[in-house]
C-alpha cells in the first residue's frame, strides 16, 4: 500500500467509526454542536486570519493570480459570514429519520423507507477555505463523517478551520473524526480517496472543470458531479425586449465567476437586428467582451470579436460572452443539446408553446423561463444551504442540500411472516 | 476508435435520438405499445423457442451446468409469464412528469422539480433472457432508451426478443432504436459501454458478484450497483423460537438462488443450544449443508461441516448456510457490518430495544424485523416491477422500479425576475 493509500485507509476507518456514532445523534445534539462551532469560528478569528495570511503570502509569491487570491482571502467579515452560514444550517430541518414512504403489505408486514446518512462523504475542492466549513457542517447535520481534501494553496487556512471544528466537536461529546482533513501536500491522496470503495460512500468534487473531469473519470467511489455550467440564454422571437435585456445582463454580469452565470447568448434571427446592439451596449458598459458568430458580427461590427469553435464549449467564468444568431427555437435547442453542460438553460419568450418545447427538450438540471440563470442556487430555492449544483442525473440533479447527503433504508417489520412459493 | 467503441458510439447516438423522442411520449402511447409487445411475444412463441433451443444446445455442448441451463431455458409458459409481466408494467403509473416538489419564491418565481427520463440506460446482464424484456419495457415505460448487453450464452434468445420488441415499437410509431441489443460475441463491448460517458446516462449490472464487481470498478459512466446479497438472519436471545425457525428456513430455502436468500445464520449464545439442533433438522430435511463455526459445531456435531474464513463472505446462492454463535446483539451487528453486502439483514427478536438498535446499526438496503428476508423484492413491496435491488447508497437503495429509472429537472418560471447583488 502506498503512503497515500495508507493515509486514506486510516482516515477512512476512523471516519467509518465516527459515522456509526453520528448516525445515532438526535437533531438537538447536532444543532448544539453546530451553534458552538459558529461561535468558535468567530472566537478564533485571529488564529484563522493568521493561518490564512500564510496561504495568501505563499499564493502571492507563487503568482497564482488576483482572482485566486480573492477566493483564498479571509477577512473578519468573511469569517463572520461563514459562522452565520453554520447557524443557518443548524436552523434547517434534519433530514435523517424522515419517512419517505410507508405502507402495509397485504400480509400485514409494515414497510417504511427512511432517510439515513450516507456514512462517509469525501469532498475534493479548490482554493476557497469557506468550503471547508460548509462541507463539514452540512455533512455533520446530515449525520455523515467527512473527509475534506482541499487545495494545497489553502492548506494553512483549512488546517486551522478543521482544527477548530474538531476541537469543538470533541468538547461536545462528538467524535472529532467526524471531520478530518486529508493532507494536500501529496497529490496522490486525491487518487487514493477516489479509489477508497467500501470506506468512502460518495465523493463530491467542488471546483473547476479540470478538477471535476479528473474526479468523474478516475473515481471508483460513486461521484456526484457538480458545477460546470456552460449556461445559455436564448432570446426567442417573441421575447419582451426589455425583459430579455435585463435577464441577459443579470445572467452574465451579476457574478461572472459562478457556475450559474451565462456563457452563451443565442438570439432568434427575427429580433437580432434590434436586440443585439442594445445588449452589446449594456454589456460593454459592464466590461463584457462579446465573442460573436458571423451573423452577429454583421450586426455588431467591431463591438465584438470573432467567435472560435472553442468559444461555444467554454465556461469563461469571466466577463466574456459567446453570441450567436439562430434561425429557430429548434436550432437553439440543438445548439444547447450539443454544447450545454446540463446545468442551467434559459429562454426569454412570450410564447407558451416555445416555453414548453424548450423546457422539455433541453436536457438540464434547471430550465429558466423568463427568469435569470442566477436563480439556480440552493439559497434561492429555499434549501438554506448548498453543497454544490449537481449536473449529473443520478441521485441528485440541481442544487444539493441536506436531503441529497442522505440515502434511505427500508425498515420492514412483521410478526413472523414468511413468503410463499410464488 | 476500436471496433467495440465504434459500435457503442453508433448505438449510443441512435439511442440518444430515440430518447429525445421517447421523453415526449404520453403514458397512453407508451402503454399501447407495451400491450402490443406482450401480445407480440406470445404470438412469436415458436420463433422465440427456436432461438432459445439454439442457446440451450450450445450451452449443453459447452457444459455450463444445470443451474445455468435452467436460467437460460424458455418454455411457452415462461414466455406467457414474461408477457404478463409486460402487461403489469403497462398497468403501472408513469413516473415521468410527476411534480416532486413545487413552490413559489418570495419574488414570485415558481419552481417545480419534475421527474424526467434519464435518457439512455445501459443494462449488462447474464444468462436469463427474461431480463431482456424486463429491462426493455421498464426503460420504455420510464421514457428511456436502452442498450441491452446480455450474455453470449443467450445471444440467440436475446436477439429474437429484441427483434420482436423493436418490430412492435416501429409498428406503433415508436423509434425502434429505443431498444437496442449490444453485440455479445465481442467482450470489448462491455468495456466500451462502461466508458460511454456523455452517451449513456447510467449503467445497471444484473448478475453475479463477479460481473457487478467488474462493472463498478471499471465504469466511468455512473453505475447503480445491484444484487449481491450476503444476507444474514440473526436470532436474538429474546426470539420466539417457532418464528425464528420459520423465518430462517424460509429465508434460506424458499429460493436459494436469488439475492435476498439468507447466507449466514447468527444465533445468540443463550438460545443456541435449543435452537441450533431444531433448525439443523429442518434445514437438513430441505437439503441444506451447514458450515458452522466452532461453537455451533460443539452443539451440532457432525450435522455441520466446519466453516472456513471464506464462508462468512460467500454468497452461496445454493443450499448452503454459514452458521455462527454470537455473544451479544453487538457482536451480531459487528459481524454483519464486517461481512454484509448491504442488501438485507434480518433480526428475530421480541425486544423492542434490540429491534431498534439492530435496525439503526446494520447498514443495509433493507432491515427485516421478524419477517423473512425473501420480502426484499419490488413485487412484494408493491412496486409492480423490479429492475434490480440496489445495494449502493447513491440514487436508489433497495428494490428499484420505475421512479428509480428517472431523474428530475427544476423548471423555473418567472415574468422577467432578475437576482439582486447579494
UniProtKB/TrEMBL annotation, chains A, B:
Cellular localisation: Cytoplasm
KW Amino-acid biosynthesis (keyword) present: yes
Any Pfam family: Aldedh
The protein's enzyme class: oxidoreductase
Molecular-function annotations in GO: glutamate-5-semialdehyde dehydrogenase activity; NADP binding
Stretches assigned to the Aldehyde dehydrogenase domain: 6-293
Biological pathway: Amino-acid biosynthesis; L-proline biosynthesis; L-glutamate 5-semialdehyde from L-glutamate: step 2/2
NCBIfam families: PRK00197.1, proA
Protein name as it appears in the record: Gamma-glutamyl phosphate reductase
The species this protein was found in: Epidermidibacterium keratini
Gene: proA
